[in-house]
Amino acid sequence: MPPGPDRLDATDARLVQALTDDPRATVMALSQRLGLARNTVQARLARLESGGFLAPFDARVRPEALGYRLGAYVTVQVVQRSLEEVAAALAALPEVLEVTALSGAADLLVRVVAVDADDLWRLTEQVLAVPGVERTDTALALRRYVDHRVAPLLERAAGADPAPGG
After folding, report:
1. Of 137, 148, 131, 135, whose CA–CA distance to 90 is shortest?
2. What is the dihedral of CA 150, 87, 78, 62, to 10 degrees?
3. Measured in Å, how far apart are the chain's first and last C-alpha atoms?
4. Which residues in the chain land under pLDDT 50?
5. Helix (H, G, I), strand (E, B), or coil: what is residue 15?
């Protein structure tokens, strides 16, 4: 698939890799490191930001640093045709970090954080009280073996690793 408005090319991937290595790098430092004109780097950064290619900065903050030491995944079964309303209600809860629609028995996978077990109980009661929620099932996150990452995909896109199947 060729690079397009919805895909990073190798130069974009190298630029994002450089930003990952040094998030405070200036445009000039990035242009020198990548061997690109300053204006090229500036334009590509603007396109990446405005195109939604880069996650918000708050994604780098660990909830534990804010006192939310307990993580859990809640699967939610929703009344037919209520997904949008339920998802919007869940998004209004500060402890809800992600809501993902699923195929299969559960309709939504909700990643939540809590201060402790009592706080998680309160939160799951709030989720159950959302109009349109039929059933929930909660699983505690005990240990994360692989943090959210994109670096291996960036390396592949930048040309450091062959594409799958090739």
Report:
1. 131
2. 50
3. 13
4. 1-3, 166
5. helix
